[in-house]
């Protein structure tokens, strides 16, 4: 190697130097005396660019020192040369001193070179071996990939084959459970496995061509038939339990039948005919059971019914009249509950309360209006229908079965309700039933159970015509009323008007939250009929004053009853308030004319005349003097008589006092006009001594006002 040769040569030279040093070799003699001589034979040196170089070196510190010292350049260069030589000699001496170390370093480098040469040979061998191993690994990798692919294919084949075997094989345990086991949760799980195998055999075309199917298919068919037979007997036994008396159907359905609802699914898929038999058996059972329950409940409710009204309980019917075959009853006049809503409105607030328990109510000797029984019956119907509808949907997976089951209960309810409706003459009860049906529809809507929609609509549709007929009967009773038999020589509110007021107030109350326009129209028709009747009755009184008092009492009573139904009033209340106002004005005039006829006649006829336009008809003192003296002599007595008259004439004390105040106010106005007229009469001041002061009259009015 070239590096090795160079190192050997260097080592030989170092060795020679080392020997000379040992012999006292003079380095200075060997090297000689070095000196710079002027080369006379050299070519002329060009000085071009010298000036530029000098300018560039001007900033150099060494050059600047030389130039500043003024020394000759040649001498300075010689000094530099000598210094360099000295340094060189010193360096050579230092090298010679380190010659041993250099020789040692040479040997070490030589040894390292040998070692590295061996390692190079060894690594070359390794490289060849690694190349051979890489080739072997590649071959193994290819073999591994091939084996992995074959393993994957075998696993796929194994899984398909295992699934096929699992789906088609009939384990002995499954046979034992299906054939000999009891129907329980384990039996249901085994049915699910059998169902999967039957579906697998029927659905997969590859299975039908397999030889295994020929061995398994007969066994599966036997198991299917056995399972169907066994679960059919089991379900029939459970259905028989539903027929037992006092059985809680809902508990039996929820805790027993629903646990085995998969049986129905199994029959529906693998035994359609048997499923239809089970379905028909359940429908027949529940139809009869529920029909019997509702029939018994209705019979118990009928014992609790309180009769409210008959065909003769009409607004315009005279209290003493009765039908030819009507049973003895208490006088209608004392049974205002026929026309008043009263406590019956509570049924709307208790709409979602539990149904009545008949034997408890019967033991307490309680009786209820029919709407209470109606709500209770339909509450039971709603709860039963909701439970049955949800069960049918969950157990059989179909909703239509509900309607087949409830055809019987619906028929039982119709058998009861239709004759009751036909013989119902209680208009308030009918309207309450209409409202009850409305709330029941809302309840079923909130439950999201649609099974009673058509039934509730049918009941609602049947109630409205009956209500309209009964309501029209009340209107007809007013229109066709015999006023001679109805009339009583009494100016206080007539019982027909009280019936009307309570009747109307009841329907206004029942229509507050519903805004039924049809009901409003019927109430307006009723109001027109009673207006005509009350005027006819009033005309039977001989005196106009009595007629007016009669009308005021009836109108005031009607307004008071209507206000109880709703403080907001309405068109009907406003109508009677207008009538009351107009008749009050008429009564005030009648009352004042009765006691102060001359005064009122004079004020109306003469006080407004203009004497300047017609001097011949001028008012004189002689004409006015009797009026003033008459008024002054008995005005207090007249007011007292008016007060007593009003107290005895009007049933409502507050209404009477309002009328008295209106009468006294009107009297004051008449008397004020008289005094104003007297002031205009020549010589009228002479009557001042007989005039009653306005303050005195005002004081008297305030005295009666304190009674309010």
Describe what this molecule looks like in 3D.
The protein is mostly helical. Helices cover 74% and strands 0% of the residues. The chain has 28 helices and no strands. Helix 24 packs antiparallel against helix 25 and helix 26 runs antiparallel to helix 27. 24% of the residues are buried. The N terminus is likely disordered.
Précis, in short:
The chain has 708 residues and is mainly alpha-helical. 74% of the residues lie in helices and 0% in strands.
Can you tag this structure with a few keywords?
708 residues; flat; mainly alpha; 74% helix
> Roughly what fraction of the amino acids lie in strands?
under 5%
N-to-C span: 146 Å
* Overall pLDDT: 82
Largest sheet entry = none
Strand segment tally:
0
Radius of gyration, CA atoms, in whole angstroms: 65 Å
Question: What is the string of helix and strand elements?
Answer: HHHHHHHHHHHHHHHHHHHHHHHHHHHH
Number of helical elements: 28
Uncertain runs are 1-11, 13-43, 322-334
C-alpha geometry: flat
Structural class: mainly alpha
What is the helix content? over 70%
